[in-house]
Amino acid sequence: MSETINNLKSNAQRVLRALAQAGRVLAGRQMAGRNVTVFPDDVFVVSYPRSGNTWTRFLIGNLINPDDPVTFANVESRLPEIYFNPDHAMRRLERPRILKSHECFQPQYPRIIYIVRDPRDVAVSFYHHNIKAGNIAENYPLEQFIPRFIKADFDSKWGSWGDHVLSWQRLREGSPGFLLLRYESMKQNPELELARVAAFLQSCSFRAIDASSEKLLRAIDLSSPERMRSLEKQQAAEWVLTRNTRNDKPFVRSAIAGGWTAQLPKQSVAAIESAWGEIMQALGYELVSGVSLPGTTASLVSTLK
Q1: pLDDT at 296
Q2: CA atoms of 211 and 63, how far apart (whole Å)
Q3: Total-model pTM
Q4: Pairing of strands 112-116, 178-182
Q5: From CA 101, how far away is CA 83, in angstroms rounded?
Q6: Which of 211, 253, 293, 303 has the most crowded Cβ, counting Cβ within 10 A?
Q7: pLDDT reported for residue 102
C-alpha cells in the first residue's frame, strides 16, 4: 500500500513538473539553454566552467564598445549566457550575436571561441566557486573535493574537464569556424590574443573592429581583475550568477595562471594528471607529479595538434 502511495506521489510530482515546464514555455519564461535558437551568424564563447569565460566576454564587449564598457549589470544584455535568458528575448538581440555557453560539443553552433584552462587551476577555482554557491561547506577538504571534481559530481551536465575539451577539439579544431584560446596565453599576452579574437570575429561577419593597440589596451584595462572585482562588489545583487551566493566570497578571485602550485596537495595534482595527463600535455601543460601515462600520448598529441 505504501509503495503504491509513493508511486502515485512520484507520478503526481512528475506531472506537476511537466505542467510547470509547459507554463514557462507558454509564458515565454523558458531559459534558452540547449534549446537556444541558433542563427547562422552567431558566435558562441564556450568553455568548461571556471576557465575564463566571463573575463573573455568582458574583453570582447569592451573591445567592440569601448565607449560604453561592459559591467555585471549589462553583460547579460550584450553577450548573454544561454542558461539565464529566455530564448524569445535573445532572439530579439542585434545580430550577429555573441553568446556564452558551457555545453560540450554542439553541432548546431556555427562559430566557436573555445577557452581552455589548466585543469589544476580550474579545480581550485571550481572548489572556491562551490563554497561561494553554498554547495559545499567552508571547511570542506580540498583533497576530498578533487576526486569528485574529476568525476564531474558538480554541474555534471557539463561532463568532466577532459570530456569537455576532447568533445570540441576532436570534432572542431582545425575548422575555419573554431578559435582555441588558452587562458594562460591570454594572461601572458592579452593584447596578442585579443587581436586574434578581433580577427576571428571580423571573419564571422562582424563589422570592422578597431583592433589598434590603443583600443586593445583599453579593452584589457577595462577588463582587468581589479576593475571586475570592484564592479562585482557594486553589482553582485544585479547579476544572476552572484545575486544568490555568498557576498563574502568573490566570483572574480585571483584570476592568475598557475595558482594551483600553492594550493593543490601533491596527491590532488597527481590525481588530475593521472586522469587527464595526455590531454594536458597535448595542450602544452607540463606534468609535475611523475605519473605514468599510457603509451598513447604521442598519438594523441599528434591528433590534437
Answers
A1: 43
A2: 8
A3: 0.84
A4: parallel
A5: 8
A6: 211
A7: 95
The 3-state DSSP class for residue 121 equals: helix
Query: And the C-alpha cell for 87?
Result: 530564448
Neighbours of 209 (CB within 10 A): 17
Beta bridge partners of 115: 47, 181
C-alpha cell at 206: 562582424
Q: HEC profile for 129-154?
A: HHHHCCCCCCCCCHHHHHHHHHCCCC
Q: What is the 3-state secondary structure (H, E, C) of 163-210?
A: HHHHHHHHHHCCCCCEEEEEHHHHHHCHHHHHHHHHHHHHHCCCCCCC
Read off the C-alpha cell for 269: 595534482
Q: How far apart are CA 13 and CA 205, in angstroms?
A: 47
CA angle 99, 101, 103 (to 5 degrees): 145
Q: Give the separation between CA 21 and CA 183, rounded to whole angstroms.
A: 37
**Beta strands at 43-47 and 98-101: parallel, antiparallel or unpaired:** parallel
Residue 301 belongs to what H/E stretch?
A: helix 297-304
Q: Round the average pLDDT of the chain to a whole number and report it.
A: 85
Does position 14 have pLDDT exceeding 60, yes or no? no
